Amino acid sequence: MAMAVANHNESGGDNINRHLDSSGKYVRYTAEQVEALERVYSECPKPTSLRRQQLISECPILAHIEPKQIKVWFQNRRCRDKQRKEASRLQSVNQKLSAMNKLLMEENDRLQKQVSHLVTENGYMKQQLTTTVGADASCDSVDPTPHHSLRDANSPAGLLAIAEETLAEFLSKATGTAVDWVQMPGMKPGPDSVGIFAISQKCNGVAARACGLVSLEPMKIVEILKDRPSWFRDCRSLEVFTMFPAGNGGTIELIYMQTYAPTTLAPARDFWTLRYTTSLDNGSFVVCERSLSGSGAGPNANSSAQFVRAEMLPSGYLIRPCDGGGSIIHIVDHINLEGWSVPDVLRPLYESSKVVAQRMTIAALRHIKQVAHERNGEVVYGLGRQPAILRTFSQRLSRGFNDAVNGFNDDGWSIAHCNGAEDITVAVNSTKHLNRFSDSLSFLGGVLCAKASMLLQNVSPAVLIRFLREHRSEWADFNVDAYSAATLKAGAFAYSGIRSTAFTGSQIIMPLGNTIEKEEMLEVVRLEGHSLVQEYTSLSRDVHLLQICTGVDEDAVGACSELIFAPINEMFPDDAPLVPSGFRVIPLDSKTGDAQDLLTANHRTLDSTSSQYVGSTTSETGSNPSTRCILTIAFQFPFENNLQENVANMACQYLRSVISSVQRVAVALSPSSGLNPVPGSKLPPGSPEAVTLAIWISQSYRQQFGSDLLRTDSLGGDSLLRQLWDHQDAILCCSLKPQPVFMFANQAGLDMLETTLVAIQDITLEKIFDESGRKALCPDFAKLMQQGFACLPSGMCVSTMGRHVSYEQAVAWKVFANCEGNNNNGIHCLAFLFANWSFL
């Protein structure tokens, strides 16, 4: 195929350098003519007829060539450029497919070896079952001397022996059958995939494996992977204690690494390991690592006391150069996180190979691919920021949130009391060493963090985080955001003097960039506000947040979903101080037999924070523990020295409010909810709340208009709800607030507004009308509030997508919770019916 393209290019190049003369014969362009044309082409590949005429008049050597021939030359020249680009693209794709084919063939060979190994093992087990008891007893006479008895971790020779053994074990996992690998669910290999991923089925600890093709040279990949804090978000610190040459061109390092705990319910982990970097005879590079025995506690014994020592079994990276450029990478992560040390409800999190795959293995390969795309100029970022700068912002947000969740003593955090809030932990950091930009916070007395973790049931982490991102007004308090933003500015107003500000309900998300698979998004969020004090109405009260959102793909098995944000200035500099807050939702991938443990886990924080909302659904969801997840919330508040107690009380109250709102949202998003927009579902399940609302709407309509909205009220409530949901006209209900907000709509209403049952709760009544429509609605609205109903003439409204909708007639009426009496105290909401609507 490449030869065919080349031949085509040669013939095209021959045609482009010929033109018709006055006698109708093809004549070659001279070198001077081609040079003149090429100069113009470099400036403007598609010149206008006027520009071509100008070219002929300016260049005497082109004077005898017809303008039509000049036009044809530029057409052929553009075609040749397009063919060259396509040939280059096809060659690149061909190289990629060849490398991927080689990778798949190697994977196939490995699987065949694994099958052969299993067959041999199966035959051995059959033979053992038929042997005599005496033969079994003879097995006890095997020499029990351990394989590594001659290793000495206190001498260079002993460390080299450990390193070589680690290398052999790692290679047997990366390309052999030492671990029984199975394909990672939902991660199918292919030419457009990041790589091939597998997880361990049965082994000591948990393990994950990945292999993929990256367009970077091997040494660059080695450099990136060894800098683990740059891509492993759970890595708090990595310190190389000792490094010496191995005598064969490689190096041996003794490393102490600390990692963050993902929740507030269990301590963090640390590792004391040997890392061996070397090259193989075939030109491949290897970085392998394993835990060493001994304390290796690191420079600060008090700091290490907050950690549980975890074990890293032989793991590492195998990087092989490709013939056509780039590298093939094999990654193996095999660890034992000592799950016995955490509450039973959390053990699935520490014993899941899927979690290790998402947090470590896949993250490493994705980061390398991201760097490769950035170097090739294939990534576009906003606001003119360089990719490395924006990546640093993402890392700082994640690191700041992890620091707040863990609250390490050596960072200056100490536990404070929160009046009776047993389910909320309040920590204070008065040292202000929040990050390397702490000088910007020197005017503050410190930072206070209120945090909690809770168990959620029957809700998707991706769906929950996506909702929290898109509907901030459902859980956030704009005044708290404004306070946090203001206290980061020198000379900001004190807590007790917060100026009254109202949130307009408008949230604008401005994307800065995202990773190649869009599993992480970096963005700036602008919250529009206005002052409630007359003298400050002319001043902008907008709040800006820098935010990362990860894990919004529902198909990513075992992925953690996060929404982390921090207040910033409008034109935030590269060294802007960040005080992150946010949410982390981690799915609990329960193993067989763990379901009962999850149901009966007796952890104070989990029980106290989840019982009021999820207790009623335990019987429905308890049989499906895979839908359980752990939600961790941490909010940070800067404070001045004399206001610590006030800010602590405010933080506790605010966090309780956020927890309550999030739990309410989680219940609404649950498939068992009555008013939940289940993907693919056209009818909300018949919850008591939905049925009751349908009855109130129908009864109030009959009371106000003297006729039935639905066919009959004698049928059961579920049937009434179905009639309301399937009604051909758009029926919407809004609240009786000073600024009415929609709270329910039937299917026709959702179609008319082009929204969902959850998103509709952010839409105000005035937003669906333009200015003329709002003016026309005012007298009818006053009539509605006075007599209880109103008939509106034909008109137009606007959907959430900006499309205009016309309707022939509309009626509105008050919906009473108690239809026996017509008193305003019993008004539940207002209902609107738009008849015969259609898009314009």
TrEMBL record:
Domain (START): residue spans on this chain: 152-371
DNA-binding region: 22-85
InterPro entries in UniProt: HD, HD-Zip_III, Homeodomain-like_sf, MEKHLA, START-like_dom_sf, START_lipid-bd_dom
Key words, A-Z: Coiled coil, Differentiation, DNA-binding, Homeobox, Nucleus, Transcription, Transcription regulation
One Gene Ontology term, aspect cellular component: nucleus
Subcellular location: Nucleus
SUPFAM superfamilies noted in UniProt: Bet v1-like, Homeodomain-like
Domain Homeobox span(s) in chain numbering: 20-84
Coiled coil: 90-121
SMART domains membership: HOX, START
Gene Ontology MF, one: DNA-binding transcription factor activity
GO biological process terms on file: cell differentiation
Region of interest called Disordered, as start-end residue ranges on this chain: 1-20
Pfam families: Homeodomain, MEKHLA, START
Principal location listed in the UniProt entry: nucleus
Family indicated by similarity: Belongs to the HD-ZIP homeobox family. Class III subfamily.
PANTHER family in the cross-refs: HOMEOBOX DOMAIN-CONTAINING PROTEIN (PTHR45950:SF12), HOMEOBOX-LEUCINE ZIPPER PROTEIN ATHB-14 (PTHR45950)
Protein name per its UniProtKB record: Homeobox-leucine zipper protein REVOLUTA
Taxonomic source organism: Raphanus sativus
Lineage: Eukaryota, Viridiplantae, Streptophyta, Embryophyta, Tracheophyta
Gene that encodes the chain: LOC108806396
